[in-house]
Amino acid sequence: QLQLVESGGGLAQPGGSLKLSCAASGFTLDYYAIGWFRQAPGKEREGVSCITSSGENTGYADSVKGRFTVSRDDSKNTVYLEMTNLKPEDAGIYYCAAVRSPLIRRSCVFYASHYDGGYWGQGTQVTVSS
């Protein structure tokens, strides 16, 4: 079965950190760009970050720039989203998505429709509260 599975969500205090993982099973991530998205209750899903298939380039929403870091370890078939200095507005369900992308491509995007032809995970809950 081809799927993405997120993990690492949980409860963090404001100013705290969490590291999310997005693991692929049934296929390898080597030739896939990855996007991270989140959705808070009553709000639309928003793009957070992305990483190219080569891992050489990344992108971040302004709201998380300087606080979140996306990385990938293709040997583990996993992509990570390290979140620091968390704020209450970072809370929500976090999803990863994968879409085939040539290694030569030097940029990535994190709008959801770009990943519609790929794979989506089921999401992991992030709560930020004192």
Helix tally equals 0
Structural class: mainly beta
Q: How would you characterize the largest beta sheet?
A: 7 strands, mixed
Q: What is the share of helical residues?
A: under 10%
Rg on CA atoms, Å = 14 Å
Strand-residue proportion: over 45%
Query: Residue ranges: pLDDT <50 for 5 or more in a row?
Result: none
Cα distance, first to last residue? 39 Å
Overall mean pLDDT: 96
Which outline best applies? globular
Order of helices and strands: EEEEEEEEEEE
E-strand count: 11
What report would you give on this structure?
This protein is mostly beta strands. The protein is 0% helix and 47% strand. The protein contains no helices and 11 strands. It has strands at 3-7, 10-12, 18-25, 32-39, 46-51, 58-60, 68-73, 78-83, 92-100, 119-120, 124-128. The strands form 2 sheets. Strands 2, 4, 5, 6, 9, 10 and 11 form a 7-stranded mixed β-sheet that branches. A 4-stranded antiparallel β-sheet has the order 1-3-8-7, with no helix packed on it. The termini are far apart.
Please render the helix and strand layout as text.
Blueprint: E1 3-7, E2 10-12, E3 18-25, E4 32-39, E5 46-51, E6 58-60, E7 68-73, E8 78-83, E9 92-100, E10 119-120, E11 124-128
Short description:
The chain has strands at residues 3-7, 10-12, 18-25, 32-39, 46-51, 58-60, 68-73, 78-83, 92-100, 119-120, 124-128. It has 130 residues and is mainly β.
